[in-house]
Design brief:
Blueprint (H helix, E strand, L loop, with lengths): L5 E2 L23 E8 L3 E9 L10 H5 L2 E3 L2 E6 L2 E5 L1 H14 L7 H14 L11 E10 L11 E11 L11 E5 L17 H5 L2 H9 L4 E3 L16 E6 L2 E5 L9 H12 L4 E4 L3 H10 L2 E8 L3 E10 L2 E4 L7 H14 L10 E3 L4
Parallel strand pairs: 1-3, 9-10, 9-15, 12-13
Antiparallel strand pairs: 2-3, 2-8, 4-7, 5-6, 5-7, 6-17, 7-8, 11-12, 11-14, 14-15, 15-16
This protein binds 2-OXO-4-methylpentanoic acid (COI).
């Protein structure tokens, strides 16, 4: 039995939101996990504290130089039990991101234990409706108040819990419209595109706004050198079905190694599909569409789950994929993936991790 971590109780519990109006990331539970770092003590004071505002120095380095990384994962409830989905993958990746920003790594097992205890306290907040889950947002940021450009000597980790529904607002598996960005780039090799750092998302916003102004839901990024090869959507990795085969851009150093991406590749292979991880040019996709070889496109991400793409706009061309309908392979992968996550299907790989009652 693991030791219980410190728990600071709040006076009044919040009212829970209407389950039919969850949206994504709008509501937060009563408590959060908190962990502090300083140069003398290392990581210390792991505790569950009331969710609420925190005090931060106006000179905190994160506010000036952006030393911040985050993660996203989910918890599901079924038959009275709450499970986390592949949480160790997220904690492995948070350390990868921390290392890239020269921030101190964290004991992954301790973090997982802290998360389990937090979710145990908040198990009543895990929604059970179709397509709903408890979205979990761990993040770490630099707190030292000093304006010199060097790594901070102090940091804070927080984990927030947010009961959520579908990321795009509509029903699950509603095809999205994607704008292929040909002006701005998201990342270059040697940069931070492979890490989940806050700045990657800040850098994507202008293109996202421009795309939204033209009626598109998301931006598909091309590589930062030739602007020729497809990389990722920013909130999702991307997959194409070409001649019945799944094709996805290979992890080349500027693409985020998505955990849903990894799971879908593993799942697709088990279901008997061929999967290719390789460079995919935008020209190849347009040609494959014109010849009829490109039959489905979908994105994968923790928040977005599996999201079919119905339209892709590149320069002056808009291609419509599978009649703007969810394709057969996308549907099958979605059902299998969500079935395992939500506990409706068996989990032979042990991806679900039970949250014990402490
Ligand atoms: C996630 O899928 O968890 C993400 O991090 C994407 C987005 C909400 C930032």
């Amino acid at each position: 039995m693991s030791e219980k971590i410190k728990f600071v109780q709040r006076e009044n519990l919040k009212e829970k939101p209407d389950p039919s109006d969850l949206g994504f990331g709008k509501y937060f539970t009563d408590y959060m996990l908190s962990f502090d770092y300083d140069i003398d003590q290392g990581w210390h004071d792991l505790q569950i504290v009331p969710y609420g505002p925190i005090e931060i120095s106006p000179a905190a380095q994160v506010l000036h130089y952006g030393q911040a990384v985050f993660e996203g994962l989910k918890a599901y409830k079924h038959e009275g039990e709450v499970d986390l989905f592949r949480p160790s993958e997220n904690f492995k990746r948070i350390n990868h991101s921390l290392a890239r920003l020269d921030m101190p790594e964290i004991d992954e097992a301790l973090l997982l234990e802290g998360l389990k205890q937090l979710v145990d306290v908040e198990r009543d907040w895990v929604p059970e409706g179709e397509g709903q889950s408890l979205y979990i947002r761990p993040f770490v940021f630099a707190t030292e108040g000093i304006l010199g450009v060097r790594p901070s000597y102090s940091y804070k980790l927080l984990i927030l819990l947010s009961p959520s529904g579908s990321y795009y607002g509509g029903a699950s598996l509603q095809p999205t419209k994607i704008y292929v960005e040909d002006e701005y780039v998201r990342a270059v090799r040697g940069g931070v595109g492979h890490a989940k750092v806050a700045g990657n998302y800040a850098a994507s916003l202008l293109a996202q706004t421009n795309a939204a102004d033209q009626g598109y839901d998301q931006v598909l990024w091309l590589d930062g050198v030739e602007q020729k090869y497809v990389e990722e959507v920013g909130s999702m990795n991307i997959f194409f079905v070409e001649n019945g085969k799944l094709v996805t851009p290979e992890l080349n150093g500027s693409i985020l190694p998505g955990i849903t991406r990894k799971t879908i590749i593993e799942l697709a292979k088990k279901l008997g599909y061929e999967v290719e991880e390789r460079r995919v040019s935008i020209d190849e996709l347009i040609e494959a569409h014109n010849s009829g070889a490109l039959t489905e496109v979908f994105g994968t991400g923790t928040a977005a789950v599996i999201s079919p793409v119905g339209k892709l706009k590149y320069e002056d061309t808009e291609i419509v994929i599978n009649n703007n309908e969810t394709g057969e392979i996308t549907q099958k992968l979605y059902e299998n993936y969500i079935g395992i996550q939500s506990g409706k299907l068996d989990d032979p790989e042990g991806w679900r991790v039970v949250v014990p009652r402490y």
